[in-house]
Fold this sequence. Notes:
By secondary structure, this protein is of the alpha/beta class. The chain has helices spanning 19-32, 47-56, 59-89, 109-120, 134-140, 143-150; strands spanning 7-11, 35-42, 99-106, 124-130, 155-160. Helix 4 runs parallel beside helix 6. The longest helix has 31 residues, at 59-89.
Amino acid sequence: MLTDIRKILFATTLERETRAVTEMAASLAVKYGAEVIMVHALEPLGNFGRAIVDSYISRELAEKIRTEGRQELMQEIETKVRTFFEEEMITDPAQQHLLREIIVREAMPEDLILQVADEQNVDLIVMGSHHRRGLSKVLMGSTARKVVELSTRPVLTVPLRD
């Protein structure tokens, strides 16, 4: 039996070089009549960053700033992503429905991608991948590599040029 692609999870970092990934996700959605669920992860502030912030302002104020700023940032990212996808990637107004949902959450990217893929029961994950060589590949790790290794769903990686 052939695989039916009805839901595509498109993981975006909002970097300029991810246009090729956006084009791939949109192209596949049009070809298969699939819905696109876009995901963007806001990486949590680490312990070191939190300690620096906490040393300059009260914990309560820091938490208020983080909470309010996070919500505002998530809304802004969602608006930018939706506008970019709808205006630049979908050329036929009849295809506007392809972008079903945008999910922006604070999480490690690989965790969010895998979580949303399961929650939404997607058929395919589309994401970019920096092709690193040598020691940087070993030391830095790769969100795409982690997703490919841990996913129970097909993952299409699109090469990004540094």
